[in-house]
Design a protein that fits this description.
Elements: E1 10-14, H1 22-32, E2 36-41, H2 43-48, H3 51-57, E3 63-65, H4 71-85, E4 89-94, H5 100-103, H6 113-136, E5 140-150, H7 164-186, E6 189-195, H8 201-204, H9 209-219, H10 227-238, E7 249-252, H11 263-269
Parallel strand pairs: 1-2, 1-4, 2-3, 4-5, 5-6, 6-7
Helix pairs in contact: 1-10, 4-6, 6-7
Length: 272
């Protein structure tokens, strides 16, 4: 059901790889709510994924390749987007993350530092690069909204989340610091949504993810939030209904973040 919450708004969606991607669902919801979008992903992901199908569904949205670790690519993305819309954008979704240490199952205490740098560059510093490039090109309109996706391992220890925990802590810090800078400059708001574990390509790379999803579900009074529900929440943050929300890390996790323990988890443990 559409409420036209994003009628007349224009935005960029990073990170739609396949139909499980949180960015994929968000692109669909934004268009349903009346937005016009540009889709972007790494060149290699565009070759492997099925983003063209999404683009068609989203009123033939342009698909612009950009590796988030390349300043040249991000500049090109904004140049082409500004030309396409003939104006700046009103919202940006940063839904990008990758760790080679996670992918290769390298334990946290033995992390490879080249891989760690790469994880930070792709998953965290990229948000700074996107915002700095946008600011330089004046590519985000007054009262625009930027959302990046994060996970509670930024605040609490989830050992198998590995160096992505540090990457997410950095992402949330950049959100606060750039949120201040873009707020005073152009009333642009910047927030992270801290999402429940969700079965996607990036999510499934984490060791023991299946068991972990069911643990989180049992711990959360409302259960795990789905990718579709995350898309709904993101739409509200792109809308004019949340204009004064900025520099926040917003938990979208069915209540998980404020739980100590639940009856469902205790009952599942059995007596010793
Ligand atoms: P996904 O695998 O569908 O999306 C990750 C995206 O990052 C892919 O589209 C991939 O192509 C893109 N990417 C990787 N390297 C890139 C590069 N160099 N340049 C441009 N794009 C690049 O998985 P998902 O789960 O939708 O992930 C989206 C975001 O949500 C990530 O930031 C992830 O950490 C976050 N998140 C995911 C959770 C989960 O359990 N799936 C939970 C909380 C947050």
């Amino acid at each position: 059901m559409s409420h036209n919450l994003l009628k007349g708004k224009k935005g960029i969606i990073f990170g739609a790889l396949d139909e499980k991607s949180i960015a994929w669902k968000t692109a669909q919801r934004c268009v349903q709510e009346g937005a016009e979008i540009v889709l972007t992903n790494a060149p290699v992901a565009l070759r492997m994924g099925t983003i063209r199908q999404l683009a068609e569904e989203c009123n033939n949205a342009p698909v612009i390749p950009a590796d988030v670790t390349s300043s040249e690519d991000i500049e090109g993305l904004f140049d082409q987007t500004l030309e396409h819309f003939g104006s700046g954008v009103d919202f940006i979704l940063h839904s990008v993350g990758m760790s080679i240490n996670v992918r290769k199952g390298i334990p946290y205490t033995e992390n490879n530092y080249d891989f760690m740098h790469k994880a930070f560059d792709i998953s965290s510093i990229s948000l700074h690069r996107v915002l700095a490039t946008a600011m330089k090109k004046d590519a985000i309109n007054e009262w625009g909204s930027v959302v990046a996706l994060t996970y509670i391992a930024a605040q609490r220890v989830f050992p198998d989340y590995n160096d992505m925990a540090d990457a997410k802590a950095l992402l949330e810090s950049i959100t606060r610091n750039f949120g201040y800078q873009y707020g005073i400059k152009k009333h642009v708001r910047v927030n992270t949504i801290s999402q429940s574990p969700t079965q996607t390509t990036a999510g499934s790379g984490v060791k023991g993810f299946g068991d972990f999803i069911s643990y989180a579900d049992k711990m959360s009074p409302l259960g795990n939030a789905t990718a579709d529900q995350c898309a709904d929440y993101t739409v509200t943050l792109f809308s004019d209904l949340t204009k004064m929300v900025t520099m926040q890390n917003l938990f979208h996790d069915g209540g998980f973040s404020f739980m100590g323990v639940s009856e469902a988890v205790i009952n599942g443990m059995g007596e010793k």
